[in-house]
Design brief:
This protein is of the alpha/beta class. The protein has a single domain, classed as P-loop containing nucleotide triphosphate hydrolases (Rossmann fold, 3-Layer(aba) Sandwich), CATH 3.40.50.300. The strands form three sheets. Strands 6-7-8-3-9-10 form a six-stranded mixed β-sheet, with helices on both faces. A four-stranded antiparallel β-sheet has the order 2-1-4-5, covered by helices on one side. The chain has a two-stranded antiparallel ribbon with strand order 11-12. Helix 4 runs antiparallel to helix 5. The structure holds adenosine-5'-triphosphate. The site of adenosine-5'-triphosphate (ATP) has 11 residues, from helix 1. Pfam families: ABC_tran. Belongs to the ABC transporter superfamily. InterPro entries: AAA+_ATPase, ABC_transporter-like_ATP-bd, P-loop_NTPase. One of its GO terms (molecular function) is ATP hydrolysis activity.
């Protein structure tokens, strides 16, 4: 188990946002976090990477409790790509991705071939190698998203957290990025809204609702017509794709009762 969340709780403005979540993510697996807007996906990701502290419960990376891991060590180990990540406009694509190497370097250390290799590989993985000299502020929304993912990859983390990484991406790049993440030798937790893409690429999914895990497990077991109606208020017909064997969700109409 590389990420273990036990009965985690977090409140904001007197409201319980993460309400007793327990999840175990095995090494190398990709977990999809699904749930309606405001169900607590981003809040949980921030707790897992130590940007927020749980009020009760325990989060562990490997054997170590997250709050006890020194900050420098933590930032070498875990990377997060948040929604609407911003970057100083006066930089190039290459500069942004090089930032991913910061946790691995001391203030006086030289830039190494290993740093170069990590940056090149990350840029190549997201298809942004040819645009490495381009100014950040001239990039499209989807290109910016891919560069932020490259920055996280350049960090060479053991655990990778992504908050809606397919936002702004055209369908080809959505497929490319999720396929890339699913093949990486890392443990990943990915907040997603597209149920079909989650079913296609995630090893396991967890459905959040009002800060709680309503269901977790294999996509084929978790994604049922009843669950999607209860949690998302949408009627569906779910069968297995004849192409990849994963659940295929056909959306019918809004389910309001
Ligand atoms: N610092 C905060 N103060 C007050 N409320 C907060 C704070 N952070 C999050 N919330 C609330 O907690 C709830 C969960 O937010 P969160 O961003 O985790 O949801 P989400 O599932 O990621 O949503 P989305 O799908 O819309 O991105 C929301 O109702 C949000 O308004």
């Amino acid at each position: 188990m590389t990420i273990s969340v036990k009965d985690a709780r977090w409140t904001a403005s007197g409201k319980m946002i993460v309400d007793g979540i327990t999840l175990d993510i095995e090494a190398g697996q990709m977990l999809g976090l699904l749930g309606p807007n405001g169900s607590g996906k981003s809040s949980l990701l921030r707790l897992i990477c130590g940007l927020r502290r749980v009020e009760s419960g325990v989060i562990r990376l490997g054997d170590d409790e997250i709050g006890l891991i020194p900050r420098a060590q933590l930032s070498r180990r875990i990377a997060i790509v948040e929604q609407q990540a911003t970057t100083d406009a006066q930089v190039t694509v290459n500069d942004v991705v090089r930032l991913g190497r910061t946790p691995h370097r001391s203030p006086l250390s030289q830039w190494t071939m290993r740093d170069d290799a990590a940056v090149n590989h990350a840029l190549e993985s997201v298809g942004m190698l040819e645009k490495r000299a381009q100014s950040w502020h001239t990039l499209s929304g989807g290109e910016r998203q891919r560069v932020h993912i490259a920055r996280a990859l350049a960090q060479t983390p053991a655990e990778l957290l992504l908050d809606e990484p397919t936002n702004h991406l055209d369908i080809q790049h959505q497929l490319d990025i999720l396929s890339l993440i699913s093949r990486l030798p890392v443990t990943s937790v990915v907040a997603l809204h597209d149920l079909n893409l989650a079913a296609m690429f995630c090893d396991r999914i967890a459905i959040l609702h009002h800060g709680r895990v309503i269901a977790a497990g294999d996509p084929g077991t978790v994604l049922t017509e009843e669950l999607v109606a209860d949690v998302f208020g949408v009627r569906t017909f779910i069968d297995r794709s004849p192409h990849h064997g994963k659940p295929h969700i056909h959306f019918l109409a809004a389910h309001r009762s």
